[in-house]
Every structure is written in C-alpha cells, then in structure tokens.
Amino acid sequence: MKKLLNTLFITQPDVYLSLDGDNIVLLKDQEKLGRLPLHNLESIISFGYTGASPALMGYCAERNISLTFFTMNGRFLARVIGESKGNVVLRKKQYVVSEDEALSARIARNFIVGKIYNHKWMIERMTRDYPLRIDVDRFKDASKQLSSLLLDVRDCENLERLRGLEGQAAICYNRLFDSMILQQKESFYFRARSRRPPLDNVNAMLSFAYSLLAIDMAAALEGVGLDAYVGFLHRDRPGRASLALDVMEELRGVFADRFVLSLINKKIVSKEDFFQKENGAVIMGDEARKKFLMAWQNKKQEKITHPFLGEKISWGLVPHVQALLLARFLRNDLDEYPPFLWK
C-alpha cells in the first residue's frame, strides 16, 4: 500500500477492499493489512483485483473518489466513478488542448525533454561504467549534442519543429546504441530501427518492449480518467493510443531500452530464442516470449526514487504517477507537466 498525490496504490495481490466508517480497510484471508482515512483521497488504484465491498464503492462514488482496478500485470479492468463531475471536465480540457497545436507543443516538448534527458543520462552512465569498452570521446560528443538539443526543445513552441528536434536526438542516440551492446555481438547488433517488421534480434525485442510499455501507459491514463487515444505530440489516428505514445517517450530509453540491453548483456536471451520468417521478419519464439514477459514483470517490481516526488516506488508505478501528474497539470493544479527525469 502506497499513498502518492492523494492516490492510494494497492499493489499486494489478493486484497479485498472494504469500508469501516470513513476509512478504507485492506483485508487478506480475513486478516487486516491496513486502514486509511478516505477523506484526503482523490482516487484508489488496486492491482490484482479480488473485490471491493458495495459499501466502499458507494461511498467512493458519492464523494467522487475514483476506484480503479488493474490486473497484477497492469492491464486495465474497470473504473468505478459516480456522477460525471471532475472526469468530464478533465477530458474536455484534454480535447481542447489537443485541438490547439501551440498548447499541444508546450506539453509535448516536456515529453521530449524527458526522452532526450534520459538518453543523455544513459550515454553518460556508459562512459562512467564502461570506459575501457566503449569510445568515450564519441559518447561524450553525443552527450554534448543532446545537451544542445535539450535547450532547443525547451523553448520550442511548434509541433513540426519539435518533431524535427526529436528526430535529430534519436539519430544521435541510435548511432551509439550498438556500442551499448557489450555481449553476444555476433548475434545481437543494432544498425537502424526497423519496426514493421523488425529485421534483427534487437529490433524484435525493442518492438515487443515498446508494445508492453504502450499497453501499461494506456492503462495508466485510462485509470486517471484521461483518453489514451487523444494525444498532443502524436496526432489522432484511428486505433492508435496517441497519448500513451506521447507519455511513454520519456520511458523508452530509460526503461524499455535498458531492459532489452540487460537481457542481452546478462545473456538471459540467446540467438536460439529467435527465428527469421520468409519475409525477413525476425520474431521471438514462444519460450523466449515467456522468459521476456517474466523478466519484464520482475523489472516492474524493482524500486526507484521518483525524481519529482522524491518517494520510493516500483518501476511499474511510474506510468501511473506520470498519468496522475499529467491530469493534475490539465486541471491547473501544477504550473507545468513534470517529465520523468531519471538520474
């Protein structure tokens, strides 16, 4: 159980939620795990749905406390809310901002600031941890380029130019990605990003990791009442969760890319885990996917200190915290959306 931003996160499995007076009570096998006053809560997010009492759901609905349920893996199940009060206002604000390209750019640039900052941090970390295994001067030059691009992005108020700056930063970062692969170089290499289809082992894993991250991000956004399909940087396209793609930009490198690199460099995956189809597409075998998913869920349980909140949370809660911060910004509770800047 963790309270952040007036939101109660319940991450223990098989917990039943009940009401006692003005308090929420957490029960597991009839044993009381915790008790917390409800009057200061705006929302309750529960993973590993077991159930909630009708009394608690009624209490939360009457007082506009959203009650959201996810599976332990982070898949969105349901959200219990009362009359449309704050939620409809939040989504209307999201739609208004999305229609205005100048307003959209002011939010979108913070997503890109987070992405470039985290890529720069990854590059600096490599020069610190592996100075004898990489070309340090090349990495330092790239870090300087990213620093310069960060300044340009921070002042950018045009979506098209913002996409151009993001593209420049991606090229700079991708040129070094192959050098971050330190093991199994004969089977795992990165020449360029290939998506549909992925044409090598590394791209196959990156595509899978990005898909999982997008699913987690979309679920988190739905959990706080935002529309995951209406974005600011990524514009509307039928069937595309544009806002999820927006917010996950900050986490692509620092979570998904680092995760893929760790699987390769720790030899958790091997060339036998992949096969190539007739059209050139490289895909993971069934056992490899199971291994990947297990490692992904374990990674989400690792603890970090959130850079904006200064609180220890699991990696799996980061998308939910960023979704909450975005919702608060759109409600004018924050002056600016704080991107996830990992150190």
From TrEMBL:
Record protein name field: CRISPR-associated endonuclease Cas1
Cofactor or coenzyme needed: Mg(2+); Mn(2+)
Its EC number(s): 3.1.-.-
GO biological process, one term: maintenance of CRISPR repeat elements
Family membership: Belongs to the CRISPR-associated endonuclease Cas1 family.
Residues that, per the record, bind Mn(2+): 166, 234, 249
Description of how the protein assembles with itself and partners: Homodimer, forms a heterotetramer with a Cas2 homodimer.
An annotated Gene Ontology molecular function: metal ion binding
PANTHER family: CRISPR-ASSOCIATED ENDONUCLEASE CAS1 1
Swiss-Prot/TrEMBL keywords: Antiviral defense, DNA-binding, Endonuclease, Hydrolase, Magnesium, Manganese, Metal-binding, Nuclease
Gene: cas1c
Role: CRISPR (clustered regularly interspaced short palindromic repeat), is an adaptive immune system that provides protection against mobile genetic elements (viruses, transposable elements and conjugative plasmids). CRISPR clusters contain spacers, sequences complementary to antecedent mobile elements, and target invading nucleic acids. CRISPR clusters are transcribed and processed into CRISPR RNA (crRNA). Acts as a dsDNA endonuclease. Involved in the integration of spacer DNA into the CRISPR cassette.
Source organism: Brevibacillus agri
InterPro entries referenced in this protein's UniProt entry, alphabetically: Cas1, CRISPR-assoc_Cas1, CRISPR-assoc_Cas1_C, CRISPR-assoc_Cas1_DVULG, CRISPR-assoc_Cas1_N
Coiled coil spans: none
